[in-house]
Amino acid sequence: MKHESFNESAEMYLKTVSELADGDEPISIAAIAGRLGISTVSATEMVHRLKDRGLLEHTPYKGVHLTEKGQRKANALIRAHHLWEVLLVERLHLPWAQAHEYACRLEHATDTAVTEALAAYLNHPITCPHGNPIPTADGAIPPTSDVPLADLMPGQSGIITRIAPESGLLFEYLAARGLTPDTAVRIEDIAPFNGPIMVACGETVHPLGQEAAGHIFVEIERLGD
Predict the structure, then answer these.
(1) Which terminus of the chain, N or C, has fewer Cβ atoms within 10 Å?
(2) pTM recorded for the entire structure
(3) CB atoms within 10 A of CB 45
């Protein structure tokens, strides 16, 4: 069975490190702890356990990387998660903002055979409802060319492509404002001193904090004057 030698908590650590990864930069244990809502002491203990299993590499005072083995396990979990999201939203018509939390519970009980049957049933989608790429069956992740909304300047426009890393609370917040994938947006203004970003969506302008804007990715559509 799937969980005889690898428990749900360990899977969540691997998935979190993968989601927080930014190129070759190590992920700090504090960032992992913050993402999972646990203490750094608990995170450090699990990091050492995963390192002993050959799933993580840890450089003291810098952070962690997934090993090739760890990345494969993380990608398999992410693949199952995103496929469940597709089923929940597109076939079962459950709310876009809530599918992530449901999928978080289902992903840990999904064997490879179930994941691949699900992929075939859904006709092998390449992105989830939140716009994130679905790893292939062999663990490859399609490249992306979008940029965070927080990187745009006033006058720039774009189309929302994805929301990452995924968060149920963030999805609820964005759904209430119509800020979902395939939506056109425009930066109207950015308040000084790390203030909110004024984002136009249709006729409405929404103030977004820098952190929220950093999770929204867009394909730049055009530059204003």
Answers:
(1) C
(2) 0.89
(3) 12
CATH number at residue 152: 2.30.30.90
Measured distance between the N- and C-terminal CA atoms of the chain, rounded to whole angstroms: 59
What is the SS3 assignment for 173? helix
- Per-residue DSSP letter, 151: G
Tens-digit pLDDT profile for residues 42-74: 999 999 999 999 999 999 889 999 999 999 999
Q: How confident is the model at residue 6 (pLDDT cuts 50, 70, 90)?
A: low
Mark residue 144 as left, alpha or beta (left: phi above 0; alpha: psi -120 to 50; beta: remaining).
beta
Do 178 and 198 lie in one domain? The reply is yes
Helix axes 168-175, 99-106, angle to 10 degrees: 160
- Which residues fall within 8 angstroms of residue 20, CB to CB, at 6 or more apart? 27, 31, 32, 35, 165
**Rounded CA separation 101/117 (Å):** 22
Residue ending a domain, among 66, 86, 115, is: 66
DSSP string, 6-36: S-HHHHHHHHHHHHH-BTTBPBPHHHHHHHH
pLDDT at 29: 93
Opening angle at CA 171, ends 77 and 210, nearest 5 = 105
Q: Is 131 left (phi over 0), alpha (psi -120 to 50) or beta?
A: left
Say yes or no: 162 and 188 in one domain.
Answer: yes
Domain boundary among 85, 119, 142: 142
pLDDT of residue 15: 93
Q: How many CB atoms lie within 10 A of CB 161?
A: 22
